[in-house]
Each structure stands twice: as structure tokens, then as C-alpha cells.
Write a structure and sequence with these properties.
mainly alpha; AhpD-like; CMD-like; AhpD_core; Carboxymuconolactone decarboxylase family protein
Length: 163
């Protein structure tokens, strides 16, 4: 299946992309650990079937030093021993926040309590915003059939500032 539209070749798509990049920079600069950010983004992207975002977050995580074992096990994090309790709480929030249509209650009180055990207010604000942002990015890419495979680590690092 060919991409339906290259959003980055349109004025509107470029303007939206810059806003997404700016929001991403706010989250990146937050005290939420970078490894957690990439794991959460990867897990939501797996659930949503977004090849572009999976490609991006696997490569960004690897470039930041994440191990191949942990990246391979994100999809089965509950059945893995390589994630910390804090990461497991973040991954649970990512899943429940991504599967809102599947769970009428949204994020469970149990998951929220686990997140609050491990993260302070600043980190939780970044985590909640990250789950919302990656889900929006996944939807954009899936709708236009943006394919994974061509992403290069850091290729959007200055996108928010570009003219």
C-alpha cells in the first residue's frame, strides 16, 4: 500500500509537524526519563500499528543506548523481567491511555496509583501529554499510510525551528 499523502510536502502538514515537534521538545526536556519516553511511545505505536512511529522510536531509543533485548520485549512487557516497576507503571498507563475505546473507564485507578508511586507531578504531566501526543501522531501516520523504514535518528531534532 502506497502512502496516500506526504504531510510534510503540504503547508498545513508542515505547520502541524512543527507544532508536534515543539510539543515533543517540551516532553523531551521534562524530568521524565528519556528511556521511559521512548518505551511508552514505542508501546502505543505498536498497539496502533503505526510502522512509521515504531521505526522512529526503536531507532531513537537504540541511538540513546537502549538495549535490543528491552526493545524487543516492549510488546510483551508484562511477561518480561527487564523493565523496572516505574517503567511497568508507565507502560500500563500508555496501554490504557491508548485503548480508551476498549475500556470505558479509561486509565484504571490501580494503574494511576502505580504511576503516582514512581513519578512526581512534573513527570506525570509529561507522561500524560506523551501518551496523548504519540496517539495523535500514530493516527496521522496510519491514516495517510506513512510507512516505517526510512527514519534516521535525530532527523526531526530541529524541525520546530525550521522555516
Amino acid at each position: 500500500m502506497e502512502p496516500r499523502l506526504d504531510l510534510f510536502t503540504t503547508e498545513t502538514g508542515t505547520r502541524l509537524g512543527k507544532r508536534f515537534a515543539s510539543l515533543g521538545q517540551v516532553i523531551e526536556r521534562s524530568p521524565l526519563p528519556k528511556s521511559t519516553q521512548e518505551l511508552v511511545s514505542l508501546r502505543a505505536s505498536q498497539i496502533n500499528g503505526c510502522g512509521w512511529c515504531i521505526d522512529m522510536h526503536v531507532k531513537e531509543a537504540a541511538a540513546a543506548g537502549e538495549s535490543a533485548v528491552r526493545l524487543h520485549l516492549v510488546a510483551a512487557w508484562r511477561e518480561s523481567t527487564v523493565f523496572t516497576e516505574a517503567e511497568r507503571a508507565a507502560l500500563a498507563l500508555a496501554e490504557e491511555g491508548t485503548r480508551l475505546a476498549d475500556a470505558y473507564e479509561g486509565v484504571s485507578d490501580e494503574t494511576w496509583a502505580r504511576v503516582r508511586e514512581h513519578y512526581d507531578d512534573e513527570q506525570v504531566a509529561a507522561l500524560v501529554a506523551l501518551v496523548a501526543l504519540i496517539n495523535a501522531a500514530n493516527r496521522l501516520a496510519v491514516i495517510v499510510h506513512q510507512k516505517g523504514g526510512s527514519y534516521q535518528p535525530g532527523m526531526f531534532s530541529d524541525f520546530a525551528e525550521r522555516g
